[in-house]
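Exercise: predict the fold of this chain.
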Amino acid sequence: MKRLNPVDKVILVNMSYIALLVAIFGRPFSDYTQIYIGNALVAIMIFACARWAPIGKSRFTDFLRAAYPALLFGYFYTQTGGLMRLFYPEFLDAGLTAWEAQVYGGSVTIWLDQNFLGGGTLTTITTEILSACYFGYYLMMPAIMIPLLVLKRYDQIGEMLTAASITFAVSFNLFWFFPIEGPRWFFAQTFTHDINGPIFREMVQFVIRNGAVHGGAMPSTHTGVAIVFLVYLYRYYRRWFYASLPIVIGIAIGAVYGRFHYITDIIVGALIAAVCIAVTIRYYPKWQSAAE
């Protein structure tokens, strides 16, 4: 269908792939009906937009088609919680942490707990800085998207969101192909210190308590998607890139420091982003021309 743009196709292909795997492996099937219904409604919405709100019809429809994928990322993230047991009855953290112990000589999370998180001003300042960066991930997309929408840079938005959508799709599928709950759950009985901060740590904890699924640590989508936006800032808005670079570095470090991810989660998330960006840059012009 020519009116489907690249982001539309990425979302539809990913939902079709999930539907196929759930049909084959999802038992009992009744546990997955909500996913089918939700994804069917999303598919109907995409086809309706492609049919009645084609790109170029008006500024409003161009705005709608450019912005809607960003509103779905949270929905697809929440959906992974219902797929976490599709292939494995338990999380696989024990194997991952054993592998990390051989490769890295131990767990960075445990080392920080034993050697740094004993309290004091330095610990609080570090916690707040890294938590501010980590929380900045949730503001990064609207902070970039809103100015570009105002400037009507729909082509740039389309390519950037295509790369982000592919990164999200690959990462979310890996959540349940290789389910990892993360250090905050796996090492919960091992930690001897809490991570405390008066402002940003509490803000991060609020988001995690109210929006995070149990699992989904491998890979780090925070790192991967932040890198996607960072690369596109480098390509188009170099000043924004330099302003965002310390925040993205802080997101990656804060994900480990805050006990949300292992080092390997960060590395895999970054590698997935790099591949998805390269593929998008290489093929997006061809994908876009096919939709016109």
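Check your answer against the key: Residues 224 and 250 are 13 Å apart (CA to CA).
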